[in-house]
Please model this.
Amino acid sequence: MGYRLTRPLFFGDDRLPSVRIGTGITGGIVSCDLTFSGRDHTLWRLRITVPGRTVYDEREAVRQPVRDYGRGRQAAEVLSSSISFLLADAEAYRATMGRRTPCDGWVFTAAVAEWAYLNDTELQAMADQLADDTTAGGRADEIVDYFRVYRTDPEAVFTVDPLDADQPPLTIGIATLGGGTVGQAYADNDWIYAVHLDGRLVTSGTDLHSGGVAQTHRQMAAALTAALGDGDAAPAALADQAERLSVWASDIEEQDADEEDHIDVR
Model:
């Protein structure tokens, strides 16, 4: 469909523009997709999935006026509107804890309202972020700190050693989504990260994954710096730090390999 997404949107299941709400068994993903484009309005599918199941999937859930800008920004607006309605259902659910249907009915369903109630803090954080992004027109120079979005702090902060005395301080803050312990390895996990150069945030995200092989915070920081050391993946602010990032990642990998060589397997 020609979507060009900027954070916090990402391509979820079936390549749908999506945002992640919360973590663990109570979290979920809200997705949308353009299903109809008329002369004066468009219709959008809305889907809400939680671990293991879909709790809402309506092909023509959102009606939007025709826009003269990209579909990625349109998707952000649709998701922003949808989250505002989810917050309304959460508030209605809170009033009676779901014991009765509101006078004007649920915007979605009772099950969705309960899910929204359980995730109202995360929904509000995402609503605030999407409102800022759409108001700013999705400016590429506006960097979102995902530790602020998830209202948490880095579990570990690593300093990337300089290659010469003139290079500014460079740090990698990292944490497991849902919380973790430094030194413990995690498989199939998402990670929050933030990179600061000379005290200034230059990139942040939740698109770092450990996959099927368990990884520690340090190993995931090394994987991140290896990717950022690739000129195609690095933000402009880190262009002059590519070699430094690559060297630091290689040093971590070599240290880990040396430690494995000295393990006495019985």
